[in-house]
Amino acid sequence: MTSHHKPAPTIQQVAQAAGVSSSTVSRAFSRPEMLSAKTVALIKDAAASLGYTPNQVARALSTGRHGNIALIVPDVTNPFFAPLIRAVEARADAAGLCIFLGDSDEDSAREERLIGKLSPQVDGLILASSRMSDEEIRMPRGRGPIVLINRDVEGMDRVLVDSAPAAAAAVRHLHALGHRRIVYVGGPTSSWSNQCRRAAVLLAGREMAMEVIEIPARRPSYEGGMAAAPAVRSTHATAAIAFDDLVAQGLMAGMAEMGVGVPGDISIVGCDDVLATRTYPQLTTIASRPDAAGRMAMEILLDRLAAGPSPGVAHMLDTELMIRATTAAAPNDKGRG
Could you give the CA distance from residue 47 to residue 25 in angstroms, rounded to a whole number? Predict the structure, then answer.
């Protein structure tokens, strides 16, 4: 018995069905932002009715474009990155692009390998909270445009969530509550965000004549926060500012295991506002808007793909201190003076 396969519909047939040119059909799938939403919908409806799907390999050969973007983050399990990833993916999907997601596991060498493997398959890269050095990030690899999130590398397009003013506001908030000895529980030393928050906490502490004790940088994780709890408690500080909400949540759990009350015995501040309303008590934290950072980075990358290279611009997003239930007056005046 001989089977007869119906030939796959062509781009010309879609163009005829939609009443447009073949180049307009191609643009609807590769550069939909260049057309009206009505035209894109008309073409995609015609394509769906015919069973047409664009040939990505043929498109890459003819246009030099793959229709893919790479997004590399240091830890997909960190809740800061979930809304960022979703925002990038949604904007890319609206532009007819697919996202390749890479997780460097907080390892700069692995991040470098991911870039090497993904670059030949994508039109551009978004590096979020890169752990590589500035020199490694700048290294030419014959790849498409790169947009950075939370890495301030001169000459490159970058989206920076400026948490320093809100970190300083957190110190002033604790001072107003009577705290005079506080701890900063740090994140990775290669993290630009950690460097900014640390510097802001130390400077604000000096300005308020407060003692600021640093707990060595560690992986930003729930386990890292739990592990830091005994060291934080041993300082006799009455408050702690954690690198992010995940560390703060682990710190709260570690304190609970030692029978230390939050905020009764120690006040805790997080950063990012991605877990704050899911902790008990609800966490005082810094709202960092990761979804806005993801959307902005993808918009910038689309601009670069359409218009070509730029001299590199820093796009700043501000933050806000969100005061909730984990900060209260310093207990028994400990840590004052």
Answer: 9
Mean pLDDT of all residues in 154-161: 96
pTM recorded for the entire structure: 0.80
The larger pLDDT score, comparing residue 154 to residue 29, is at 154
Beta bridge partners of 73: 103
Q: How confident is the model at residue 252 (pLDDT cuts 50, 70, 90)?
A: very high
- DSSP H helices, 95-133, are 108-118
249: left (phi over 0), alpha (psi -120 to 50) or beta: alpha
CA distances from 193 to 24, 187, 329 (A): 43, 9, 28
* Tokens found for residue 90: 């949604």
Number of other CB atoms surrounding residue 128 within 10 Å: 24
Contact 129, 151 (CB under 8 A): yes
Among 22, 4, 13, smallest CA distance to 47 is for: 13
- At 154, the amino acid letter reads E
pLDDT in tens, 190-232: 999 999 999 999 999 999 999 999 998 778 999 999 999 999 9
Look up tokens 């793959």; give the residue. Answer: 66
In the chain, the largest separation of any two C-alpha atoms, in whole Å, equals: 93
For residue 4, pLDDT beyond 90: no
Q: Which residue type sits at 137?
A: I
Picking from 162, 167, 146, 185, the residue whose alpha carbon sits closest to that of residue 266 is 185
What is the average per-residue pLDDT within 237-251? 97
Distances (CA, A) of 152 to 140, 147, 333: 18, 11, 40
Return d(Cα 290, Cα 115) in angstroms, integer. Answer: 22
Q: Could you tell me if residue 209 is left (phi over 0), alpha (psi between -120 and 50 degrees) or otherwise beta?
A: left
309-314 contacts at long range (C-beta below 8 A, 24 or more positions apart): 309/145, 310/157, 311/155, 312/153, 312/154, 312/155, 312/156, 312/157, 312/158, 313/157, 313/158, 314/152, 314/158, 314/160
Q: How much is the pLDDT for 52? A: 83
- Residue 252 is which amino acid? M
How far apart, in Å, do the first and last CA atoms of the chain sit? 93
